[in-house]
Amino acid sequence: MSSRTSPISQPITIRRAVARDAKRLTRLVRGSGAYEGKYAAAVAGYRVGPDYIEAHRTFVAVAADEHGGRVLGFYSLVLAPPELDLLFVADEAQGRGIGRLLVAHMQSEARAAGLDRLKVVSHLPAEDFYHRVGAVRTGTAFANPPAVPWDRPEFEFRIPSE
Q1: Which single residue of 26, 31, 113, 162 has CA 20 to 30 Å from 4?
Q2: What value, to the nearest 5°, has the Cα angle with vertex 144 and ends 41 and 55?
Q3: Interior CA angle at 73 toward 71 and 76, to 5°?
Q4: What CATH class has 12-158?
Q5: Residues contacting residue 67 through CB under 8 Å, at least 6 positions apart
Q6: Who contacts 136 (Cβ-Cβ below 8 Å, separation ≥6)?
Q7: Which residue, among 119, 121, 120, has the nearest Cα to 151 in the 3D structure?
Q8: How far, in Å, CA of 152 to CA of 162, rounded?
Q9: What pLDDT tens digit does each residue of the chain (162 aa) get?
């Protein structure tokens, strides 16, 4: 089994992001392999700042390893209107269940906030991932040049009550 597809080998903690995480989250977004080539311009100047972290429910998946808590991924939940705004997993950590773990955490947070559904405008390469974790395709977010010059699939997570 390659390291890219091996299960999580060290304990993972999901915690609320704090201002000092901003630079690491920005690097994760800008360095994402999913945004190479024609998609690179979409994240080239993107910034996850302390103000963003404070304004939204942003959570990070952190590995308990020799590096003292390496950020493996994160997501951001916007409550009004309900939307999964960002979800990124570090390239080297993909295929190990971290994205699925973040989605499960996001659904729990959404349920606790009283949401019964939320929207996701997906990046094209992430479309299969969202299908696999239970999101339902609801439409298309049309291109908005110059920021996003391509159409994107739109999904919805339905949040069942417990």
Answers
A1: 26
A2: 75
A3: 120
A4: alpha beta
A5: none
A6: 155, 156, 157, 158
A7: 121
A8: 31
A9: 333 344 556 789 999 999 999 999 999 999 999 999 988 888 988 999 999 999 999 999 998 765 557 899 999 999 999 999 999 999 999 999 999 999 999 999 999 999 999 999 999 999 999 999 999 999 999 998 887 889 999 999 999 887
C-beta neighbour count of 132 within 10 angstroms: 11
Convert 27-40 to b/e letters by CB count within 10 Å (16 or more is b): ebbeebebbeeebe
What's the token pair of residue 132?
Answer: 């696999």
Domain ranges of the chain: 12-158
Look at residue 95 and give its three-state secondary structure.
coil
Taking CB atoms within 8 Å and a gap of at least 24, the contacts of 46-51 are 47/22, 48/22, 48/86, 49/22, 50/19, 50/22
Residue 37, φ and ψ in degrees, nearest 5: 65, -130
Give the integer Cα–Cα distance in Å for 133 and 114.
20
